[in-house]
Amino acid sequence: MTHFPFEIAAVDGAARTGRIQTPRGDIRTPAFMPVGTAATVKALYPEQVSEAGADIILGNTYHLMLRPGAERVHRLGGLHRFMRWSGPILTDSGGFQVWSLSKLRQMSEEGVTFKSHIDGSAHSLTPERSIEIQADLLGADISMQLDECTAFPSPREEAERSMEMSLRWAKRSKAAFGERETQNLFGIVQGSTFEDLRRRSAEGLMEIGFDGYAIGGLAVGEGFEAMCEVLDFTTPVLPLDRPRYLMGVGKPVDLVESVARGVDMFDCVMPTRSGRHGQAWSDYGPVNLKNARFAEDDTPLNAAIACPASRDYSRAYIHHLVRAGEYLGSMLLSWHNIAYYEDLMARMRTAIAEGEFEAFRRGFLERWHSNEKDRAE
Amino acid sequence: MTHFPFEIAAVDGAARTGRIQTPRGDIRTPAFMPVGTAATVKALYPEQVSEAGADIILGNTYHLMLRPGAERVHRLGGLHRFMRWSGPILTDSGGFQVWSLSKLRQMSEEGVTFKSHIDGSAHSLTPERSIEIQADLLGADISMQLDECTAFPSPREEAERSMEMSLRWAKRSKAAFGERETQNLFGIVQGSTFEDLRRRSAEGLMEIGFDGYAIGGLAVGEGFEAMCEVLDFTTPVLPLDRPRYLMGVGKPVDLVESVARGVDMFDCVMPTRSGRHGQAWSDYGPVNLKNARFAEDDTPLNAAIACPASRDYSRAYIHHLVRAGEYLGSMLLSWHNIAYYEDLMARMRTAIAEGEFEAFRRGFLERWHSNEKDRAE
């Protein structure tokens, strides 16, 4: 297997910054990947995603296999061409959405059968089929092994059984993926909140050997403290020279605290989902633009971000658009939120490169917590 | 009153092409004005509207006075600044939407009182208040007199009563507008489908004297033939040297046939509304992108139009987006439709300038009618 080169340019505490070099372009780390669930980062044009600073986006295997269908995307030239995104794409394995969205799941050692949440049609997903969809049909630059997302909370025995099955699926995923020159495969560490299980999972994956290591099974209700604790004992076990990807996380504060613990990659639907619900993210937390106090606020969302949505439109105008249910309100807020997330990553990369990450983190946490009473409104 | 200069560069039959020169930029005629009902051309960024070829947009007084409120827009610097549109804006008077959207209307010689369709709040609109909202508070470049939209069909006596009241309101609108250096006011010809009433209305307006003349009360169910007939006997009565604006029209074929009858300006919600409902316009009529035949159609909507939505995205991708209910589907189709409408106007302007309008019109009608069986599907 050919790892994408991962050059770590600077390390500051556990935090690191660098570049993953892929044939479709470099990924500056720590990286935030906007989520393009159904072959579109919701309410953004692909050029906006790229100009906002995203080097890589995520596509959802579960959604794409159901609609428009993985074979169809393949016949249309693959996911990059289909959705007009020329940079790298990471696809998830489909496992998480089967677990959270589909109906009538049946799990077995072989894989999972389920009914589509769209039309009730029957489908199945095995480690081998997931790799076929991701790497062969969609043409993902980075594929993920199929895993089982362990429910939280789970008894230890259940977390162990589930983690061990994910490990066996990891082996089958790697075998199905084989050796590829221009595509990579990541394994996923499971084990819920149990330190020894996380360690066993990480070691099992490293024995198999992957191009990168994801931390799964978080952001499922365990809370901020538990997430930090899992990272505290999980990232040190992972190889220093390979990318670490924390799946499905999170709020800005989660990103900062995870980067502090050595995470390199993130994805989350939060910026676009919040945007469609009238919220703008900032270092001070989320701001609800529907709030009457913005009705005549002539200032932009954030003049320091070089994105038209952040800089050129007044809060009063966006307030009006959101109240009126206009498309442009969701479009501007989703765009701003992606730009804000990417700007936050850029600020963290700079801070790490300059050996100032701890100061950045302290400043960020001060801003984040300064406004908590306000946000609770 | 200072008319905006209207230079007619070429005449071909009754069709004409030229430029209306306003302090905020020239309007190339025949012109199509995208409708920015609630201070946004739905699902488009203002830059896209302008780059698609629109020189002027329309704002709806009724919607803006209810939300965010005309005084609020004024405090925020006027409609241009509020919505980031630096070109000319024409506002309607609010009369049509009061008639079509509001509840519990009470019409009198003085004006109309009504309840908001948004929150039931009580409002009133008089010729004087409409001018205040349009010209003073929103800051429209072109304001429209308040009129009563006569229902179709109407008995002759009712059409005459209504037209005569609109004429008295025209006089009051003109008096309220006064003399302005940088803003214009248009009168509206009413009279339903009755030739003598339309003539009487036009002559009455010309006696008062306006900067331009709109033809109202069409596109309200009278049908294509009746619309053409009304234009046949109405445009010849209007002054040659002033812009003629056909309100609320229409399909591409309506625009071509109206330009052939001497109309200079149009507005219609059709391109954006159709776009939100999965339809793309073309010289062959509307095309429903939801249709299964587009599922693997790798061609763009119209490679001849210099708009990314028309040229760079495949029908298969847009089909997928529409089926999946994604924002980007509505965004791309609305953008394409505005670009198509503006491209159609540009092609008509060129044909008139080259003395080839009749040939253009014949070719267009052949394309339009060639596909009628298909469209009926």
UniProtKB/TrEMBL annotation, chains A, B:
It comes from Marinicauda pacifica. Substrate binds at D92, S93, G94, G95, F96, D147, Q190, G217. GO terms for cellular component: cytosol. Catalyzes the base-exchange of a guanine (G) residue with the queuine precursor 7-aminomethyl-7-deazaguanine (PreQ1) at position 34 (anticodon wobble position) in tRNAs with GU(N) anticodons (tRNA-Asp, -Asn, -His and -Tyr). Catalysis occurs through a double-displacement mechanism. The nucleophile active site attacks the C1' of nucleotide 34 to detach the guanine base from the RNA, forming a covalent enzyme-RNA intermediate. The proton acceptor active site deprotonates the incoming PreQ1, allowing a nucleophilic attack on the C1' of the ribose to form the product. One of its GO terms (biological process) is tRNA queuosine(34) biosynthetic process. Pathway: tRNA modification; tRNA-queuosine biosynthesis. This is Queuine tRNA-ribosyltransferase. SUPFAM superfamilies: tRNA-guanine transglycosylase. One of its GO terms (molecular function) is tRNA-guanosine(34) queuine transglycosylase activity. It comes from the Bacteria. Pfam families: TGT. Residues 14-369 form the tRNA-guanine(15) transglycosylase-like domain. Keywords: Glycosyltransferase, Queuosine biosynthesis, Transferase, tRNA processing.
